[in-house]
Amino acid sequence: MEIDVSIFAPIRFAAAVAVATLLGTAGPAAAAQCGNSAAGFESWKQQYAAEARARGASPTAVSALLGTTYAYATISADRGQKSFRLTLDQFMAKRGGSTIVARGRTLKRSQAALFDQIEERYGVPAGPLIAIWGMETAFGTQRGNQNTLSAVATLAYDCRRTEFFTDQLDAALKLVDRGLITGETRGSMHGELGQTQFMPKSILLYGVGGSLDNSANALMSTANFLKAHGWRRGAGYQPGEPNFAAIQGWNAATVYQQAIAKIGAQID
Questions:
Q1: Under CATH, to which class is 5-79+144-193 assigned?
Q2: DSSP 212
Q3: I need a labelling partner for 109 at 20 to 30 A (CA). Which of 20, 150, 153, 227 fits?
Q4: Domain map of the chain by residue range?
Q5: Cα dist. 212→13, 98, 152, 192, 195 in Å?
């Protein structure tokens, strides 16, 4: 999955105060020196591990961090994102929009009880949830095979968006402490996890029911995210309508937002 991390960082997660409360720190560590190649990663990792230990990370979390390696594939993917520059029609074709709609309509019928339960609790209808599910992982079939901690640690070390991914790494270490991930957990290239691809901090803030590899948990968590980003029960979610802003909170790439709205409407 491609993620436009250069633009979604400011809006995909909750306010820093809430995050600081969850992570037990007032902000990201800044002492470890970032770098733009693998050369300094090992020394950065040792320094960051010491900082994490001082902030209260468990021996298990620190050990998992020390087991990470520089993720060349993640850096390559981060430098080569192109699909968000496509037109809506091109993007829909590339991502298999018509296939997502067809499969999504079937899933809406076969899992009607689940989607009814989610809508009753969060106010979010099936269409946009199924659209996100299909767009992110082809309904759970393509969740990635990149080591999650290595991906997030590499991007925290990288100088492009150090602060953003330092927050993600702190959250990932907290997930290790809670037993939700391990040093062996695998996901997508930027550290996204589960059937709808949550970043580590979003798992802390919006995760519902346990592992997001479970489709029901992932869909409820996605609805929880959208509700927290202003979703209004019964309001429209097309561009210009009230709930489109919540979709914008999920991913800031305009073409992605438009695709989710269009696919969701066709499913609904």
A1: mainly alpha
A2: T
A3: 227
A4: 5-79+144-193, 86-142+206-267
A5: 17, 25, 18, 11, 6
Residue found by looking up tokens 């850096």 in the block: 75
The rounded radius of gyration (Å) of the Cα atoms in the chain is 18
| Domain at 86-142+206-267, CATH class | mainly alpha
* pTM of the complete model: 0.85
Inter-CA distances, 214 with 36, 64, 144, 195, 220, Å: 36, 24, 15, 7, 10
Which uninterrupted H or E stretch holds 62? helix 59-66
Please check whether residue 202 is in contact with residue 211, taking contact to mean a CB–CB distance below 8 angstroms.
no
Query: For residue 26, what are its two tokens?
Result: 């007032």
Instruction: Cite the beta strand spans of the chain per DSSP E.
Output: 146-147, 186-187
Q: How confident is the model over 167-204, as pLDDT tens digits?
A: 999 999 999 999 999 999 999 999 999 999 999 999 99
Other beta carbons less than 10 A from residue 42's beta carbon: 14
